[in-house]
Amino acid sequence: MRAIQQVEFGGPEVLELVDIPVPEPAEGQVLIEVSRAGINFADTHQREDGYVQKQHLPLIPGGEVAGVRADTGERVVALTGHGGYAQFAVAPADKTFPIPDGLDDGAALALLIQGLTAWHLYRTCARIAPGGEESVLVVSGAGGVGSLAVQLGQAMGAGRVIATASSEEKRELCLELGADVAIDGDASDADALRDRILGANHGREVDVVLEMAGGPLFDVALRAMADMGRMVVYGISSREQNEVRTGRLLKRSQSVIGFWLFHYLERREHLEVPLAELFALAAEGVVNAVVGETYALSDARRAQEDLVARRTRGKLLLDPSR
Hints:
This protein is α/β, with parallel strands linked by helices. The protein has helices at 41-47, 105-110, 113-126, 144-155, 168-177, 190-200, 216-223, 246-252, 269-283, 300-308; strands spanning 2-5, 16-19, 29-39, 64-69, 75-79, 88-92, 96-98, 136-138, 161-165, 181-184, 206-211, 225-233, 255-258, 291-296, 315-319.
């Protein structure tokens, strides 16, 4: 089968198209013929061995796939951990979920890692108070997680939803998805960005920040957060880590919460219940997964380069047939 494999860590150039045997599922695993593989920022960190977990070579990237179970013919999405950038992949049976009729493979895949992340950011971490009075700042609102977080805001009980995006086109998308305001997230002028955030919230600091950039934007967003505010950190796309002074948190009763989806993978109810809700919201038209470009498997390098360079929007996919 065709697959993308790396035998060393480094830049996109380490991703090689190879021909290797179809994997054999072990006990408790299923074999999936992959129709689409999801592309995530985590893949770029794994490629460099800069991810939360230590990586091992040789490595086939790709933590999620959509396709058909080889044993039953059922359409499914699955969390693979690794091995998704290929024509066939194995996945744990308890992390494999049927795709409802009427939902295509790409949309279902966009609701897997990104959808589960957005759901847990609201419900598990930020714990939005019911009543629609708390404001939410969604960093990178046109991205895979961000585009879903913008749409989920009202359903999750949020009040005013403010999105950041790097271009006018992306800001227009955020507004189309349901953001009340979309602003430029450029943090090169920290005071100007803070003013834009407060201006978008009628001059008030925001209650919740969903943050995945790190670096200067993190610092500005923290400065723009209200007393008893909660910032949920679920990525560091800038690769710039931040430090927080505990005295500031105490003085303002603020929280900075880290979220990594893979801590929630060991219990199926952390996946099955939210995924069922997400699929139901999609069926009702409340949530529309934003599916971006579908790249050929042979273009995996370019896909990761485009993602890191922020030339994309929505969920990026690989087509293993090309």
